Amino acid sequence: MARLTGPAETALLEFFKALSDVGRLQVAGRLAERDQSAAQLAEALGLPPAAIRKHLDGLSHAELVDGPHSAAQTYRLRRDYLHALAAQALPRAAAAVPPTEDEYVARVLRDFLTPEGAIRELPAQAKKYRVVARYALQAFEVGPRYTEKEVNERLKRLHPDTATLRRTFIDWKWMDREKAGGSYWRTES
Question: Between vectors from CA 21 to CA 25 and to CA 76, what angle results, nearest 5°?
Fold first, then answer.
């Protein structure tokens, strides 16, 4: 994985420093739920208003919090900034996992993929193998036809055992092929 340097590294260090304090972490957690005023935060967390202001200053310095806004004097967690930091810090393989996937699928992919997105090894357990095989299937679109050579080239980028993956796609009816095996196509989206 590439090492972050310069402004990206500084921003991540400030982020972790800001959240290394339990009080600031609690304030950030409350603001993740909804925008709140310093008084609301003090009441919810049972902390003195001066401590809340100090925590808000620390979070603001790290660019994690905006505020106060409007007459209500509310503070807001900067989700846009958090997403930008995450995009800089996460390896490509983790970023490739759609956020809508359930935790099990994400965990299996983290366990069996390299940071570059290749398959480290094919799982022995059937349920995990299905997750990894479905990930490999994403190398193909529904509609186009692929020669066996094209199928193997795409799969080889992910794992050297192209025959096993290709056979899995056919056996599980995720792909179909001409009888002579000259043309393959994905059958499901």
Answer: 35
179 in the same domain as 122: yes
One digit per residue, the tens of pLDDT, for the chain of length 189 reads 445 556 667 777 888 888 888 999 999 989 988 889 999 999 999 999 999 999 999 998 888 898 887 777 889 888 888 777 777 766 554 555 444 447 888 889 999 998 888 999 999 999 999 999 999 999 999 889 999 999 999 999 999 999 999 999 999 999 999 887 679 999 975
Within a domain: 181: yes
Q: Is residue 1 part of a domain?
A: no
Q: Is 180 left (phi over 0), alpha (psi -120 to 50) or beta?
A: alpha
Domain of residue 135: give its range: 91-186
Q: Is the pTM of this model over 0.70?
A: no
Measured CA distances, 86 to 134, 147, 166, 184 (Å): 25, 38, 34, 38
Same domain, 98 and 178: yes
Same domain, 112 and 67: no
